[in-house]
Amino acid sequence: MLDNFDHLLKKYAHLLVHKGLGVSQDDYIQLAADIELAPLARLISQEAYQAGAKKVIVRYQDDQLTRIHYVGQSVETLTDIPQYRIDESNDLMNKRTKRMSLRSSDPNALKGIDPEKISQAQRATSKALKEERLATQANVVSWLVAAGAGQAWANLVFPDLEDEAALDALWDEIFKTTRVYEEDPVKAWDEHEARLQTKADFLNKNQFDILHYTGPGTDLKLGLPNNHVWESAGSVNEKGEVFIANMPTEEVFTAPDANRAEGVITSSKPLSYGGVVIDKMIFHFEDGKITKATAEEGEETLLKLINDNDGARQLGEVALVPHQSPISQSNIIFFNTLFDENASNHLAIGQAYATSVENGAKMSQDELNEVGLNRSDVHVDFMVGNAEMNIDGITKDGEVIPVFRNGEWAF
Ligand code: ZN
Ligand code: ZN
Fold first, then answer.
1. CA distance 385 to 268
2. I need a surface site. Which of 310, 342, 357, 382 has the fewest CB within 10 A?
3. Ligand positioned closest to the Cα atom of 353
4. Using an 8 Å Cβ cutoff, are 243 and 21 in contact?
């Protein structure tokens, strides 16, 4: 076990509760945690009550059990989301319950299961729990996605290490990238947030009309909507309370205009989607839509994602992350979007965050669609950044301003 592990885990729980989710007096908290992370879930619950939470609701998830259910249940059963589950979710949203998701997922948990079965089950859940999803994506409630080390995940990331050493190595990376080793992690995050915000401010001031990506296998022109808003680490909920939606985070992001993408872009890292690893993807775009997509690994799953979900042919997020980000420097492929997306420039297929345009959180779904923000039941990030990537910002007047050079911020 890592030196001082218990102490570090406590510091981590404190950081997630206070700086991450921003727990305050009389809050309802919903914590979804992988079962391997029970010790951390207990610490977080304790911290949350100490911070004044009224009630903490913990729901454990178990990848192995999920797999057993997929094998044992028919598609009809998997897609039949019971009304009591929907009522519970809506009740929690009415209480403005803050949501924390603590994952240690095995990226290959569902390998070999019929992709059609997975796709249908995920679509049914996503549709049934739509209110919760929309409230989260529009920052009506505070939410946080963070990670803890799990054995199957650790073994995939560190295949040359024995079980215990792999688990330690993964915890070490999690603590490093979330700044838990700093004397005062909360203060370290305050400083990190401020640094990222200077990048967002520059991009917001320039209001680029187009971002032009060039690099090996990539030449893409991506339109940005009017009044788009670049955001970074810090977010604000409906009540004006601050939170950080992802820990770690290194990205500055907004939404592209879903109807304006032209050219080709090549992925730079694998991604795990629906329990399957997809790697070496190439996407061709016309009028904002994916006209062709290929992958060397997991292509069937990728094509199902794009073909079977409304809005999955268009993009909903554009995010900038310098190639020399701490996560990228670790040179580790995590097979977990929370980490890999923070090592690399990325785009997301599907749903855009309502907050990516001014006043977006107050707009209806139709209004968001009209201003160019893609609407979809899915949101899947894929990584495109590398050390050779250049990005130019093109203004409405045609002025070209370097945004990225050789994978790094150009300003
Ligand atoms: Zn992102
Ligand atoms: Zn995303």
1. 6
2. 310
3. 2
4. yes
| Pair 7, 133: CB distance under 8 Å | no
Q: How far is the CA of 75 from the centre of ligand 1 (A)?
A: 31
Q: Which ligand is nearest to the CA of 233?
A: 1
Query: In the structure encoding, which two tokens stand for residue 386, read together?
Result: 């590398």
pLDDT on residue 275: 84
d(CA 209, CA 185): 37
Question: What CA–CA distance (Å, rounded) separates 373 from 314?
Answer: 10
Cα of 25 vs centre of ligand 2, distance in Å, is: 30
pLDDT tens by residue, 64-87: 999 999 999 999 999 999 999 999
**pLDDT tier for residue 88 given thresholds of 50, 70 and 90:** very high
Ligand 1 center to residue 200 CA distance, Å?
14
Question: Between vectors from CA 68 to CA 63 and to CA 72, what angle results, nearest 5°?
Answer: 150
299 backbone dihedrals φ, ψ, rounded to 5°:
-60, -40
* Alpha carbon of 379 to ligand 2 centroid (Å): 6
The stretch 353-370 carries a mean pLDDT of 95
Compute φ and ψ for 340, nearest 5 degrees: -65, -35
At 168, the amino acid letter reads: D
The arithmetic mean of pLDDT across residues 295-313, rounded, is 95
How many A from CA of 381 to the centre of ligand 1?
7
* Three-state SS at 215: strand
User: What sign does the dihedral 126-129-130-135 (CA atoms) show?
Assistant: negative
Average pLDDT, the chain: 96
Sequence-ordered list of residues with C-beta below 8 angstroms from that of 342, at least 6 positions apart, any chain: 177, 246, 248, 249, 250, 251, 321, 325, 327
Strand partners, 234: 244
User: Which one, of 70, 62, 28, lies nearest residue 45 by Cα?
Assistant: 28
Distance (Å, whole) CA 112 – CA 288: 32
Report every protein residue that has its C-beta within 5 angstroms of ion ligand 2: 317, 348, 381
Residue reference for tokens 């796709």: 119
Q: What token pair was written down for 134?
A: 């929309």
Instruction: Give dist(CA 254, CA 250) in Å, integer.
Output: 14
The pLDDT, as a whole number, for residue 186 is 97
98-103 and 28-34 strand pairing: parallel
